[in-house]
Amino acid sequence: MALNATDFVKLEELSKIKEDTESLLTEKMERWEYLEDLNQKIQAQNKK
Q1: How far apart are CA 10 and CA 22, in angstroms?
Q2: Are 22 and 16 in contact (CB under 8 A)?
Q3: What pLDDT score was predicted for residue 41?
Q4: Alpha-carbon separation of residue 13 from 4, 23, 40 (angstroms)
Q5: CA–CA gap between residue 12 and residue 6 (Å, rounded)
Q6: Distance, CA of 27 to CA of 16 (rounded, Å)
Q7: pTM given for the model
Q8: How many CB atoms lie within 10 A of CB 4?
Q9: Per-residue pLDDT of the chain (48 residues; tens, 9 = 90+)
Q10: Biggest alpha carbon–alpha carbon distance for the chain
Q11: In this predicted structure, what is the pLDDT of residue 21?
């Protein structure tokens, strides 16, 4: 982004890509947390 600081069209495009990537990362992290929680519950149930 720093390399394109004066190219506002390119900067806007890069900002959109960054925003989309961060959103996707957030979704994936939430899914991972859900699955990790589910795994822990299953592990706890199997120990009983």
Answers
A1: 18
A2: no
A3: 97
A4: 10, 15, 41
A5: 11
A6: 17
A7: 0.72
A8: 13
A9: 777 778 889 889 999 999 999 999 999 999 999 999 999 999 999 997
A10: 62
A11: 98
Do 14 and 1 form a contact (C-beta atoms < 8 A)? yes
CA dihedral (16, 22, 28, 33) positive or negative: negative
Full 3-state SS string of 1-48 = CHHHCCCHHHHHHHHHHHHHHHHHHHHHHHHHHHHHHHHHHHHHHHCC
Cα(35)–Cα(10) distance, integer angstroms: 37
Query: Exposed, middle or buried, 21 (CB in 10 Å: 0-12/13-18/19+)?
Result: exposed
Rounded-to-integer distance, Cα 5 and Cα 28, Å: 30
